[in-house]
Amino acid sequence: MCGIAGIFEPRKNQPAATLRLQAAAMADALQHRGPDDRGNWAAVDGGVALAFQRLSILDLTQAGHQPMTSRSGRFTIVFNGEIYNVEQLREELLAEDSGLRFRGHSDTEVMLAAFEAWGVEKSLQKFNGMFAFAVWDAETRSLQLARDRMGEKPLYYGWFGGTLLFGSELKALRRHPAFDGEVDRGALTLLLRYNCIPAPYTIHSRVRKLGPATLLTVRGESDSVEKQYWSLRDVYEQAADQPFCGTDDEAADALEELLRDAVKLRMISDVPLGAFLSGGIDSSTVVAFMQLASSQPVNTFTIGVTESSFDEAHDARAVAAHLGTNHTELYVTPAEVQAVIPKLAEIYDEPFADSSQLPTYLVSTLARKYVTVALSGDGGDEIFGGYNRYVWLQRTWTATGWIPRVMRRGSAKLMGSVSVGTWDSLYKTASPLLPEAFKHRLPGEKVHKLAGVLDAADPRAMYLGLTSHWNEPDSVVVGGSEPPSMTRNGATPGTSAGLVEEMMYLDAMGYLPDDILVKVDRASMAVGLEARVPMLDHRVVEFACRLPLAMKIRDGRGKWILRQVLYRHVPAQMVERPKMGFGIPLHDWLRGPLREWAEVLLDASRLRKEGFIDPTAVQQKWAEHLSGQRDWGHHLWDVLMFQAWLEASHSPVLAAVGA
Question: Catalytic residue at 545?
Answer without folding.
Answer: no
